[in-house]
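<context>
A single protein, sequence plus fold
<sample>
Here is the protein in question:
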Amino acid sequence: MIQQDDNSNITPHKSISLLYSAPWFAEELLPQLNASFEVHSEPDIENLDNYLRDRSLFKLPDVILLEVDDAHECFNYVEKLKKNVLLKGLVIVLVAKKADKAVRNRAMKLKVNDLYNDPVPLKDLCERIIFLVKFKLIKPQLSDLSNIDYTYKIPIFKRLFDIITSGMALLVLSPFLLIVGLIVAIESKGPVIFKSKRVGTGYRIFDFYKFRSMRQGASEELKKLSDLNQYDKSETGDTTFVKLRNDPRITAFGRFIRKYSIDELPQLANVFMGDMSLVGNRPLPLYEAEMLTSNEWTMRFLGPAGLTGLWQVSRRGKADMSERERKKLDNFYAQNHSFWLDLKILLKTLPAIVQKEKV
């Protein structure tokens, strides 16, 4: 099956990680690949995909080696990888049981890095893998994600709706906003509007506005209060999102405006300016966004950021909220957002405004 050649001169490159799913070739390919690279093997594409989803961006494989299966499902999967902005730079090598012009044409169309037919020249394959990894930048770094080749372009109608609705709301609510601001200023020292850096669509960082609901110095106290975090740590051992039960840093009036989501009203200015939309995934604080490095969850940043969203209308404030559940809701919206879904979320937002849990 494997072309016989002199493999003794192949220098091991254990720094190169290879994700392997080619069962028909495994008996003769895997021993040499294991000797040359850091190999993780999966029996089929489904298991390979599950493994890949759980990898951190910093732990993605350098190369994916797939077998051209009889049903040609491998090509559908390669196409899926190429459409994922976080994975499309991975080196992909295919191995086929026999030469087939149609297979080669399809591989070329998908811009697969290489295709080998049985008998596979093992030495050539290993040297090719080393070359491809050495000369192709394939691992996106978190610090570079803001430059990712993806831009969410808000539909014109959605943007017009955001401008008109947020502008009218700011105009109508301005007397109420002034009263709330005055009470915040009288109750405790500090700025009336709390401004923080948030990460929105495409990892864009912007200033995010809220009425201050906590005493001064609240950010410095966060680490000491980690035991109050409502998100379950049992799945991963660590948690990404932070929302505290019975947060002791909140002022008396701050608790009131939080309960009725009044503290969120200044974000209408963010919507009006185009930092975010009325409906979308909530923009995250920097410390939360930096922890979302698994490629499965970074998809949430490839859709619109918003004032309200699926999380708010379906699970917000519920004590049994898990981190995974929150992430899945964000991912679903990023991949399936539409005008009608936005309208449905907006109609459900008012009943969801009042929080039942003290978080």
Observations:
- Confidence is low (pLDDT under 50) at residues 137-149, 234-238.
- The longest strand covers residues 193-199.
- Residues 156-187 form the longest helix (32 residues).
